[in-house]
Amino acid sequence: MKSYRKELYFNLPTRRGFVNITPQVEQALAESGVREGLVLVNAMNITASVFINDDESGLHSDFEKWLERLAPEKPYSQYAHNGYEDNADAHLKRTVMGREVVVAITGGRLDFGTWEQIFYGEFDGKRTKRVLVKIIGE
Known about the structure:
Strand order of the largest sheet: 1-8-3-5-6
CATH topology: Jelly Rolls
Distance between the termini: 5 Å
Shape: elongated
Helix content: 25-40%
CATH architecture: Sandwich
């Protein structure tokens, strides 16, 4: 059994955004040499997310609007968490979008369904955050 670990780093210039990280995960898989197994991809920050969905700009816009209705950024005073920080909404958005994904590896490739891609979701940007890619298998 092989094990491989890689960290990806992101620093989005905006407070919120979505980045397709499938190519970086595929690169890590190639580096690992694993042909059959699993890959775990998880956000290592409490205000960021990793999720699987379609790479379609309209859908991403819908995510943004939906999340903002669920947990609006402002007014900051609506959240008990806000005081030293103003990111309570980012914590809530991350909870909805999820912390990690696990994808099967078959024949040295990510075993996706139709249109599936892996995304990094940022909800409190403008600083460097990391994503862990952990690959295990043979």
